[in-house]
Write a structure and sequence with these properties.
nine-stranded antiparallel beta sheet; mainly beta
Length: about 190
């Protein structure tokens, strides 16, 4: 088990989005630990990407995308927090949206945070994930780290993945930038 540090995110967002599949998102809440394997991501770039928050240029609501890789970038869509990690090469702009995780540990706590009858609905989408893991705007601009109660571990899990166009965007790039673990029940539908 290795805790992923900021240097991991100092690469092209597409590469980071693919490499995050199979990694473990860890969230500490008081004496409880929540864990989920990342099963779905989307890569976003700078001002050349019409689906990106950075498309309109650097603003107060998106400035984190220009900041240090490994920082958390949170924004709201339809009353749901979106959990992104800043990821880009030097002098570039970008982030990776974590769309879904496969819950592994702390499932009872996740179910308290997000009341659902079908466990497959627990973390199978970006808003569902942030509710289950209690991720909100207070994390915006912080680094992923155990000190901030949220981090990612590499446990050496290898997964088979596929790609598609990003979900819910009006304009997209020609390249497929949504990545997901094949046949995982927690990939968003």
């Amino acid at each position: 088990m290795v805790i992923i540090r900021s240097e991991f995110f100092r690469r092209n967002p597409k590469v980071v989005a693919i490499d995050l599949l199979g990694k473990i998102l860890v969230r500490k809440i008081d004496d409880k630990t929540l864990e989920g394997m990342i099963v779905e991501t989307e890569a976003y770039f700078g001002q050349d990407d019409p689906a990106s928050r950075a498309f309109q240029g650097k603003k107060n609501y998106n400035k984190e995308m220009w900041e240090e890789p490994g920082k958390i970038f949170i924004y709201n869509v339809h009353n749901n927090w979106m959990f992104n990690i800043v990821a880009h090469e030097d002098n570039k702009v970008g982030a990776v949206l974590i769309r879904a995780v496969h819950p592994l540990k702390g499932i009872e706590e996740m179910m308290k945070n997000r009341i659902v009858k079908d466990i497959r609905e627990l973390t199978s989408g970006p808003g569902k994930l942030t509710k289950a893991f209690k991720i909100d705007k207070s994390f915006n601009g912080k680094f992923l780290s155990p000190e901030n109660s949220i981090y990612i571990e590499d446990r050496g899990i290898k997964v088979e993945f596929d790609s598609s166009h990003r979900i819910g965007v009006r304009k997209d790039l020609k390249e497929k930038l949504r990545f997901f673990v094949v046949n995982d029940e927690f990939v968003s539908r």
